[in-house]
Amino acid sequence: MASDEFDIIRRYFNVGALAFPIPELVLGIGDDCALLRPAPGMQLAMSMDILQEGVHFLPDSDPYRLGKRSLLVNLSDLAAMGAKPLCFTLGLCLPGVDEQWLEAFSKGLAQVAQEHHCPLVGGDMSSASPRHGSKTLCIQVQGELPVGLGLLRSGANLGDLVYVTGSLGDAAAGLRVLQDAVKVSPVHRAALLEAFYEPESRVAAGRALREFASSCIDLSDGLASDLRHVLQASGVGACIELDSLPLSSAFREAIGAQEQKRLAISGGDDYELCFTVAAEKEAAMRAAMTALGVPVTRIGVITNQDGIEWRDQDVPLTMVVSGFRHFEATPLLAEASS
Ligand code: ADP
Ligand code: MG
User: Fold this and answer.
1) Which of 285, 160, 156, 169 shows the shortest CA–CA distance to 228?
2) Which pLDDT tens digit goes with each residue over 185-210?
Protein backbone atom coordinates (compact mmCIF):
# COMPACT_ATOMS: atom_id res chain seq x y z
CA MET A 1 0.00 0.00 0.00
CA ALA A 2 1.43 3.37 -1.01
CA SER A 3 1.54 5.62 2.02
CA ASP A 4 2.55 9.05 0.71
CA GLU A 5 3.35 11.00 -2.45
CA PHE A 6 6.93 9.69 -2.67
CA ASP A 7 5.70 6.14 -2.40
CA ILE A 8 3.19 6.77 -5.17
CA ILE A 9 5.85 8.27 -7.42
CA ARG A 10 8.21 5.36 -6.75
CA ARG A 11 5.57 2.70 -7.36
CA TYR A 12 3.64 4.05 -10.28
CA PHE A 13 5.55 6.82 -12.00
CA ASN A 14 9.32 6.49 -11.52
CA VAL A 15 9.20 3.08 -13.20
CA GLY A 16 11.00 1.78 -16.27
CA ALA A 17 7.88 1.68 -18.43
CA LEU A 18 7.36 5.44 -17.97
CA ALA A 19 10.62 7.04 -16.87
CA PHE A 20 12.95 5.49 -19.47
CA PRO A 21 16.08 7.19 -20.84
CA ILE A 22 16.34 9.08 -24.14
CA PRO A 23 19.58 10.60 -25.53
CA GLU A 24 18.45 14.20 -24.91
CA LEU A 25 17.68 13.55 -21.22
CA VAL A 26 20.61 14.35 -18.92
CA LEU A 27 18.69 13.91 -15.65
CA GLY A 28 15.18 12.58 -15.04
CA ILE A 29 12.93 12.16 -11.97
CA GLY A 30 14.48 12.69 -8.54
CA ASP A 31 16.10 16.12 -8.42
CA ASP A 32 14.64 19.63 -8.35
CA CYS A 33 14.51 19.80 -12.13
CA ALA A 34 14.92 17.41 -15.01
CA LEU A 35 17.78 18.38 -17.33
CA LEU A 36 17.45 18.23 -21.11
CA ARG A 37 20.00 18.81 -23.82
CA PRO A 38 18.34 19.52 -27.18
CA ALA A 39 20.45 18.63 -30.24
CA PRO A 40 22.29 21.54 -31.92
CA GLY A 41 20.05 23.47 -34.32
CA MET A 42 16.87 22.33 -32.59
CA GLN A 43 14.41 24.45 -30.65
CA LEU A 44 12.16 23.28 -27.83
CA ALA A 45 8.38 23.16 -28.20
CA MET A 46 6.35 23.15 -24.98
CA SER A 47 2.67 22.80 -24.33
CA MET A 48 0.39 21.98 -21.40
CA ASP A 49 -3.11 20.58 -21.05
CA ILE A 50 -5.23 20.31 -17.92
CA LEU A 51 -7.82 17.56 -17.63
CA GLN A 52 -10.36 18.16 -14.89
CA GLU A 53 -12.83 15.55 -13.73
CA GLY A 54 -16.35 16.71 -14.53
CA VAL A 55 -15.13 19.11 -17.20
CA HIS A 56 -12.89 17.05 -19.49
CA PHE A 57 -13.76 13.55 -18.39
CA LEU A 58 -16.53 11.77 -16.54
CA PRO A 59 -15.89 10.68 -12.93
CA ASP A 60 -16.21 6.97 -13.71
CA SER A 61 -13.81 7.11 -16.68
CA ASP A 62 -11.76 3.98 -17.31
CA PRO A 63 -8.38 5.01 -15.80
CA TYR A 64 -6.26 3.12 -18.35
CA ARG A 65 -7.96 4.88 -21.25
CA LEU A 66 -7.82 8.17 -19.37
CA GLY A 67 -4.04 7.76 -18.98
CA LYS A 68 -3.69 7.27 -22.72
CA ARG A 69 -5.94 10.20 -23.51
CA SER A 70 -4.14 12.58 -21.13
CA LEU A 71 -0.86 12.14 -22.96
CA LEU A 72 -2.37 11.88 -26.45
CA VAL A 73 -4.15 15.24 -26.20
CA ASN A 74 -0.86 16.85 -25.22
CA LEU A 75 1.05 15.17 -28.04
CA SER A 76 -1.59 16.58 -30.38
CA ASP A 77 -0.28 20.10 -29.70
CA LEU A 78 3.24 18.98 -30.60
CA ALA A 79 1.83 17.40 -33.78
CA ALA A 80 0.14 20.67 -34.72
CA MET A 81 3.47 22.47 -34.39
CA GLY A 82 5.33 19.85 -36.42
CA ALA A 83 7.45 18.90 -33.40
CA LYS A 84 8.87 15.54 -32.38
CA PRO A 85 7.92 14.55 -28.80
CA LEU A 86 10.83 14.46 -26.33
CA CYS A 87 9.43 14.01 -22.82
CA PHE A 88 6.69 15.13 -20.44
CA THR A 89 5.99 16.14 -16.84
CA LEU A 90 2.87 15.23 -14.87
CA GLY A 91 0.93 17.16 -12.24
CA LEU A 92 -1.65 15.20 -10.26
CA CYS A 93 -4.16 16.53 -7.79
CA LEU A 94 -6.03 13.58 -6.28
CA PRO A 95 -8.71 13.27 -3.60
CA GLY A 96 -7.11 10.12 -2.16
CA VAL A 97 -4.83 7.18 -2.84
CA ASP A 98 -6.71 4.78 -5.11
CA GLU A 99 -4.09 2.19 -6.03
CA GLN A 100 -6.20 0.48 -8.68
CA TRP A 101 -6.78 3.79 -10.37
CA LEU A 102 -3.07 4.76 -10.14
CA GLU A 103 -1.99 1.40 -11.52
CA ALA A 104 -4.30 1.53 -14.53
CA PHE A 105 -3.78 5.26 -15.18
CA SER A 106 0.03 4.93 -15.14
CA LYS A 107 -0.15 1.89 -17.45
CA GLY A 108 -2.21 3.88 -19.97
CA LEU A 109 0.30 6.72 -19.80
CA ALA A 110 3.19 4.27 -20.26
CA GLN A 111 1.59 2.72 -23.32
CA VAL A 112 1.51 6.06 -25.15
CA ALA A 113 4.87 7.20 -23.73
CA GLN A 114 6.54 4.12 -25.19
CA GLU A 115 4.78 4.36 -28.52
CA HIS A 116 6.16 7.89 -28.89
CA HIS A 117 9.53 7.42 -27.14
CA CYS A 118 8.42 10.21 -24.83
CA PRO A 119 9.30 9.44 -21.18
CA LEU A 120 8.02 11.00 -17.96
CA VAL A 121 10.80 13.17 -16.49
CA GLY A 122 9.18 14.85 -13.48
CA GLY A 123 6.05 16.30 -12.01
CA ASP A 124 4.24 17.25 -8.86
CA MET A 125 1.52 15.76 -6.74
CA SER A 126 -0.97 17.12 -4.27
CA SER A 127 -4.03 16.00 -2.39
CA ALA A 128 -7.21 17.66 -3.60
CA SER A 129 -9.07 20.06 -1.33
CA PRO A 130 -11.73 18.09 0.56
CA ARG A 131 -14.31 20.65 -0.59
CA HIS A 132 -13.71 19.77 -4.24
CA GLY A 133 -12.78 16.12 -4.08
CA SER A 134 -12.26 15.63 -7.80
CA LYS A 135 -9.19 14.71 -9.80
CA THR A 136 -7.14 17.20 -11.79
CA LEU A 137 -4.49 15.95 -14.21
CA CYS A 138 -2.00 18.25 -15.83
CA ILE A 139 0.61 17.28 -18.38
CA GLN A 140 3.29 19.40 -19.94
CA VAL A 141 4.99 18.00 -23.02
CA GLN A 142 8.32 19.02 -24.44
CA GLY A 143 9.17 18.43 -28.08
CA GLU A 144 11.79 19.59 -30.53
CA LEU A 145 11.92 20.84 -34.07
CA PRO A 146 14.55 22.51 -36.25
CA VAL A 147 15.01 26.21 -35.46
CA GLY A 148 12.61 28.33 -37.55
CA LEU A 149 10.50 25.44 -38.83
CA GLY A 150 7.44 25.49 -36.53
CA LEU A 151 4.01 25.08 -38.15
CA LEU A 152 2.39 28.33 -37.03
CA ARG A 153 -1.24 29.41 -37.03
CA SER A 154 -0.29 32.64 -38.75
CA GLY A 155 0.89 31.39 -42.14
CA ALA A 156 -2.34 30.85 -44.12
CA ASN A 157 -2.45 32.75 -47.44
CA LEU A 158 -5.24 33.76 -49.80
CA GLY A 159 -6.03 30.83 -52.12
CA ASP A 160 -4.51 28.15 -49.88
CA LEU A 161 -6.56 24.98 -49.59
CA VAL A 162 -7.98 23.99 -46.19
CA TYR A 163 -7.51 20.37 -45.17
CA VAL A 164 -8.28 18.16 -42.18
CA THR A 165 -6.89 14.77 -41.20
CA GLY A 166 -9.16 11.87 -40.23
CA SER A 167 -12.86 12.42 -39.63
CA LEU A 168 -14.75 15.04 -37.60
CA GLY A 169 -17.25 14.75 -34.76
CA ASP A 170 -16.48 11.18 -33.69
CA ALA A 171 -15.24 12.18 -30.24
CA ALA A 172 -18.28 14.39 -29.63
CA ALA A 173 -20.50 11.48 -30.67
CA GLY A 174 -18.42 9.23 -28.36
CA LEU A 175 -19.13 11.53 -25.44
CA ARG A 176 -22.85 11.22 -26.16
CA VAL A 177 -22.48 7.45 -26.17
CA LEU A 178 -20.79 7.68 -22.77
CA GLN A 179 -23.62 9.83 -21.50
CA ASP A 180 -26.17 7.33 -22.86
CA ALA A 181 -27.59 10.07 -25.06
CA VAL A 182 -27.43 8.08 -28.31
CA LYS A 183 -27.84 4.44 -29.31
CA VAL A 184 -25.57 2.76 -31.86
CA SER A 185 -24.56 -0.75 -32.92
CA PRO A 186 -21.77 -2.33 -30.82
CA VAL A 187 -19.07 -1.92 -33.49
CA HIS A 188 -19.81 1.75 -34.00
CA ARG A 189 -20.15 2.28 -30.27
CA ALA A 190 -16.62 0.92 -29.82
CA ALA A 191 -15.30 3.12 -32.64
CA LEU A 192 -16.82 6.29 -31.16
CA LEU A 193 -15.58 5.54 -27.64
CA GLU A 194 -12.13 4.94 -29.04
CA ALA A 195 -12.26 8.27 -30.86
CA PHE A 196 -13.02 9.98 -27.55
CA TYR A 197 -10.52 8.14 -25.35
CA GLU A 198 -7.73 7.42 -27.78
CA PRO A 199 -7.54 10.09 -30.45
CA GLU A 200 -5.29 9.08 -33.35
CA SER A 201 -1.82 10.46 -32.92
CA ARG A 202 -1.06 12.87 -35.75
CA VAL A 203 2.57 13.41 -34.68
CA ALA A 204 4.04 11.79 -37.82
CA ALA A 205 1.63 13.73 -40.05
CA GLY A 206 2.51 17.02 -38.33
CA ARG A 207 6.24 16.48 -38.78
CA ALA A 208 5.76 15.64 -42.46
CA LEU A 209 3.52 18.69 -42.94
CA ARG A 210 6.40 21.03 -42.03
CA GLU A 211 7.40 20.69 -45.66
CA PHE A 212 3.99 21.44 -47.16
CA ALA A 213 1.60 23.28 -44.86
CA SER A 214 1.45 27.08 -44.55
CA SER A 215 -0.43 26.90 -41.22
CA CYS A 216 -1.70 24.24 -38.85
CA ILE A 217 -3.76 23.79 -35.69
CA ASP A 218 -5.09 20.77 -33.83
CA LEU A 219 -8.84 20.51 -33.38
CA SER A 220 -9.53 20.43 -29.66
CA ASP A 221 -12.55 22.75 -29.41
CA GLY A 222 -14.17 22.02 -32.80
CA LEU A 223 -13.42 23.18 -36.34
CA ALA A 224 -15.63 26.28 -36.11
CA SER A 225 -13.68 27.58 -33.16
CA ASP A 226 -10.18 26.36 -33.98
CA LEU A 227 -10.16 27.37 -37.65
CA ARG A 228 -11.07 30.89 -36.53
CA HIS A 229 -7.83 31.04 -34.54
CA VAL A 230 -5.89 30.33 -37.74
CA LEU A 231 -7.86 32.90 -39.72
CA GLN A 232 -7.37 35.59 -37.09
CA ALA A 233 -3.68 34.88 -36.73
CA SER A 234 -3.23 34.90 -40.51
CA GLY A 235 -5.50 37.90 -41.23
CA VAL A 236 -7.60 35.96 -43.77
CA GLY A 237 -11.02 34.23 -44.07
CA ALA A 238 -12.18 30.84 -45.29
CA CYS A 239 -14.98 29.28 -47.29
CA ILE A 240 -15.81 25.78 -46.03
CA GLU A 241 -17.93 23.25 -47.96
CA LEU A 242 -20.04 21.46 -45.38
CA ASP A 243 -20.79 18.64 -47.81
CA SER A 244 -17.13 17.75 -47.99
CA LEU A 245 -16.63 17.29 -44.22
CA PRO A 246 -15.24 13.79 -43.55
CA LEU A 247 -17.83 11.92 -41.44
CA SER A 248 -17.34 8.31 -40.34
CA SER A 249 -20.03 5.67 -40.74
CA ALA A 250 -20.17 5.34 -36.94
CA PHE A 251 -20.82 9.07 -36.65
CA ARG A 252 -23.53 8.90 -39.33
CA GLU A 253 -25.28 6.12 -37.49
CA ALA A 254 -25.13 7.83 -34.10
CA ILE A 255 -26.10 11.35 -35.08
CA GLY A 256 -29.28 12.33 -36.92
CA ALA A 257 -28.84 13.72 -40.45
CA GLN A 258 -30.18 17.10 -39.32
CA GLU A 259 -27.48 17.53 -36.75
CA GLN A 260 -24.44 15.94 -38.38
CA LYS A 261 -22.86 18.98 -39.94
CA ARG A 262 -23.41 21.15 -36.91
CA LEU A 263 -21.86 18.63 -34.55
CA ALA A 264 -18.95 17.89 -36.91
CA ILE A 265 -17.88 21.53 -36.83
CA SER A 266 -18.75 22.41 -33.23
CA GLY A 267 -17.95 19.19 -31.37
CA GLY A 268 -14.66 19.17 -29.50
CA ASP A 269 -11.99 16.60 -28.72
CA ASP A 270 -11.26 15.36 -32.25
CA TYR A 271 -7.53 16.12 -32.05
CA GLU A 272 -7.26 15.95 -35.80
CA LEU A 273 -5.08 18.48 -37.62
CA CYS A 274 -6.55 21.32 -39.66
CA PHE A 275 -3.97 22.82 -42.01
CA THR A 276 -3.64 25.00 -45.08
CA VAL A 277 -1.55 24.20 -48.13
CA ALA A 278 -0.72 26.19 -51.27
CA ALA A 279 -2.32 24.66 -54.38
CA GLU A 280 1.06 23.89 -55.97
CA LYS A 281 2.06 21.77 -52.98
CA GLU A 282 -1.23 19.88 -52.74
CA ALA A 283 -0.24 16.83 -54.80
CA ALA A 284 3.06 16.32 -52.97
CA MET A 285 1.32 16.77 -49.59
CA ARG A 286 -1.32 14.18 -50.51
CA ALA A 287 1.36 11.71 -51.59
CA ALA A 288 3.24 12.21 -48.31
CA MET A 289 0.07 11.67 -46.25
CA THR A 290 -0.84 8.56 -48.25
CA ALA A 291 2.65 7.18 -47.60
CA LEU A 292 2.04 7.68 -43.86
CA GLY A 293 -1.43 6.11 -44.07
CA VAL A 294 -3.04 9.36 -42.85
CA PRO A 295 -6.37 10.17 -44.50
CA VAL A 296 -6.77 13.84 -45.44
CA THR A 297 -9.77 15.70 -46.84
CA ARG A 298 -9.96 19.07 -48.58
CA ILE A 299 -12.80 21.01 -46.98
CA GLY A 300 -12.41 24.52 -48.36
CA VAL A 301 -10.23 27.45 -49.35
CA ILE A 302 -8.71 30.55 -47.78
CA THR A 303 -10.42 33.79 -48.82
CA ASN A 304 -9.88 37.46 -48.16
CA GLN A 305 -13.24 37.92 -46.41
CA ASP A 306 -13.63 38.11 -42.67
CA GLY A 307 -14.46 34.91 -40.80
CA ILE A 308 -15.84 31.64 -42.13
CA GLU A 309 -18.40 31.27 -44.89
CA TRP A 310 -20.10 27.89 -44.47
CA ARG A 311 -21.38 26.56 -47.81
CA ASP A 312 -24.05 23.90 -47.87
CA GLN A 313 -25.67 22.40 -50.98
CA ASP A 314 -28.90 21.47 -49.19
CA VAL A 315 -29.57 24.53 -47.10
CA PRO A 316 -28.40 28.08 -47.66
CA LEU A 317 -26.79 28.38 -44.32
CA THR A 318 -26.25 31.26 -42.02
CA MET A 319 -25.05 29.11 -39.19
CA VAL A 320 -23.88 30.69 -36.04
CA VAL A 321 -21.71 28.02 -34.54
CA SER A 322 -18.90 28.16 -32.13
CA GLY A 323 -16.79 25.53 -30.49
CA PHE A 324 -16.34 24.82 -26.85
CA ARG A 325 -15.27 27.68 -24.59
CA HIS A 326 -14.52 27.34 -20.93
CA PHE A 327 -16.54 29.59 -18.58
CA GLU A 328 -19.08 30.05 -21.37
CA ALA A 329 -20.27 26.51 -22.10
CA THR A 330 -22.21 24.09 -19.93
CA PRO A 331 -19.69 21.77 -18.31
CA LEU A 332 -19.96 17.97 -18.55
CA LEU A 333 -21.46 17.83 -15.09
CA ALA A 334 -23.76 20.54 -13.88
CA GLU A 335 -22.23 20.59 -10.41
CA ALA A 336 -18.78 21.23 -11.85
CA SER A 337 -19.76 24.86 -12.31
CA SER A 338 -20.77 25.43 -8.68
P1 ADP B 1 10.02 19.56 -5.19
O2 ADP B 1 9.56 19.55 -3.78
O3 ADP B 1 11.42 20.00 -5.40
O4 ADP B 1 9.03 20.20 -6.12
P5 ADP B 1 9.01 16.95 -5.22
O6 ADP B 1 9.40 16.48 -3.86
O7 ADP B 1 7.63 17.42 -5.44
O8 ADP B 1 10.06 18.03 -5.66
O9 ADP B 1 9.29 15.80 -6.27
C10 ADP B 1 10.44 14.99 -6.18
C11 ADP B 1 10.78 14.45 -7.53
O12 ADP B 1 9.72 13.66 -8.01
C13 ADP B 1 11.00 15.56 -8.59
O14 ADP B 1 12.05 15.15 -9.43
C15 ADP B 1 9.70 15.60 -9.30
O16 ADP B 1 9.86 16.05 -10.63
C17 ADP B 1 9.25 14.16 -9.23
N18 ADP B 1 7.79 14.04 -9.26
C19 ADP B 1 6.87 14.59 -8.41
N20 ADP B 1 5.61 14.26 -8.76
C21 ADP B 1 5.71 13.48 -9.85
C22 ADP B 1 4.79 12.82 -10.70
N23 ADP B 1 3.46 12.90 -10.53
N24 ADP B 1 5.26 12.11 -11.75
C25 ADP B 1 6.59 12.06 -11.97
N26 ADP B 1 7.52 12.63 -11.21
C27 ADP B 1 7.11 13.34 -10.17
MG1 MG C 1 7.14 19.57 -5.85
Assistant:
1) 156
2) 999 999 999 999 999 999 999 999 99
